[in-house]
Design brief:
Radius of gyration: 13 Å
Helix content: 55-70%
Order of helices and strands: HHH
Distance between the termini: 13 Å
Structural class: mainly alpha
Number of strands: 0
Number of domains: 1
């Protein structure tokens, strides 16, 4: 869970900061998994990490996403 969710969050956040800082235009594409919506008993931790990624992707304010500290990184 810690790597799947936190690494995705951190990489997107740092990439976005770099792109904004350098004036680079473009898009950051993040993929999740169907596992985010179809839980399987033997993969609950994986399912939860993919759901976390999906939740972050639906963030209503991208600037809020950049300033949020991940509770999973602690």
């Amino acid at each position: 869970m810690r790597i799947n969710a936190s690494a995705t969050f951190s990489l997107v956040r740092e990439t976005a900061k770099s792109m904004l800082g350098s004036g680079t235009a473009g898009a950051i594409v993040v993929l999740s998994s169907v596992a985010a919506k179809e839980a399987r008993l033997n993969s609950l931790t994986y399912n939860a990490s993919k759901l976390a990624v999906l939740h972050w992707l639906n963030c209503s304010d991208p600037t809020e996403f950049l300033s949020t500290r991940s509770h999973l990184a602690r």
